[in-house]
Design brief:
14% of the residues lie in helices and 37% in strands. With 184 residues, it is mainly beta. The chain is elongated, with a radius of gyration of 19 Å. The site of zinc ion (ZN) has 7 residues, from helix 2.
């Protein structure tokens, strides 16, 4: 899955690591003649690579990045109270990861391309939501679940609905907060 380089840092061995917008890091070593990346050795060279896309295998493996900060949790929903928006295709913003926790029953969790996978979640198997990748959920009767959102930076809201736009969904979220279905 292609992710954008947003920064670089050095690991304890002084090897260069590219920080990507998904929250994962990836080594970009200069180790000739095996790995030739002379650009990693200068500030100017690294700057020239900001914005470049790298393939992130960790995203494809649904691996949560380290040091995520929890910042929002939905209310507990069941098959009757689940917001329609969650059953339609939607996605989180860049860098925002979420976890779907099943308290009772089961839930079908589909992740769109480029992953293209469907999982059946239960209380022993949480769903990992990858930033910016469309997904949807279909709870079965008697299922009870909640979602928690984490990120490395500050976010004003969690989800973007491509069909209705960011603002519309934020307004929806705001009204839901007002009647107490979401907790910050
Ligand atoms: Zn990643």
């Amino acid at each position: 899955m292609k992710r954008q380089i947003v920064a670089f840092h050095l690991d304890p061995e002084n090897d260069c690591v590219a920080d990507m917008d998904c929250g994962h890091g990836q080594h970009v070593r200069h180790n000739p003649p095996f790995e030739n990346r002379a650009w990693t050795t200068s500030e100017e060279g690294r700057k020239s690579k900001l914005g470049v896309m790298l393939n992130c295998v960790r995203c494809e493996e649904l691996e949560l990045p380290q040091n995520l900060i929890p910042y929002k949790k939905t209310a507990v929903f069941d098959a009757d109270s689940v917001p329609t928006a969650l059953t339609l295709s939607h996605s989180t913003k860049a860098g925002v990861w979420a976890k779907i926790h099943l308290l009772e029953g089961g839930l079908s969790y589909s992740i769109a391309q480029p992953l293209g996978k469907t999982f059946v979640l239960d209380s022993a198997h949480a769903g990992i939501v990858i930033p910016e990748v469309a997904h949807s959920v279909q709870p079965v009767p008697l299922s009870v679940f909640t979602s928690s959102f984490t990120t490395k930076g500050r976010r004003s809201h969690a989800c973007v609905l491509p069909s209705t736009g960011c603002l519309t969904f934020f307004q929806t979220l705001t009204s839901i907060v007002r009647i107490g279905l979401f907790v910050a």
